[in-house]
Amino acid sequence: MADPEHRGPRPTGFDTLTLHAGQRPDAATGARATPIYQSASFVFPDTDFAVGLFNIERAGHVYSRLSNPTNAVLEERISALEGGVGAIATASGQAAMHLAVATLASAGDHIVASRSLYGGTHNLLEYTLPRFGIETTFVDPRSPNDFAAAIRDSTKLLFGEILGNPGLEVLDIPRVAEVAHAAGLPLMVDATFATPWLAKPLDFGTDIVVHSATKFLSGHGIVIGGLLVDGGTFDWEASGRFPTLTEPYVGFHDLVFAEEFGPQAFITRARKEGMRDFGACMAPTTAFHILQGLETLPLRMAKHVENTRRVVAFLDAHDAVASVSYPELPGHPDHELAGKLLPKGAGAVFSFELEGGREAGRVFIESLSLFSHLANVGDAKSLVIHPASTTHHRMDTQALAAAGIGEGLVRLSIGLEDPRDLIDDLGRALRRASRA
Amino acid sequence: MSGTRIEVAGASAYVGTGSGKPEPDAPCVAFVHGAGMDHTVWALPARHFARKGLRVLAPDLPGHGRSTGPARSTIPAMADWLADVFDAAGVEQAAVVGHSMGSLVAWQFAQGHADRCRALALLGTSMPMPVTDMLLNAAKDNHHAAFDMANAWSHSPGGSLGANDNPGVWMLGAGERLLERSGPGVFHADLAACNAFNADEADGAVTCPALVIAGDEDRMTPARAGLDVASHLAGAKVVRLAGCGHAMLSERPNEILDALIDVVTER
Question: Is the ipTM, as predicted for this complex, more than 0.85?
Answer without folding.
Answer: yes
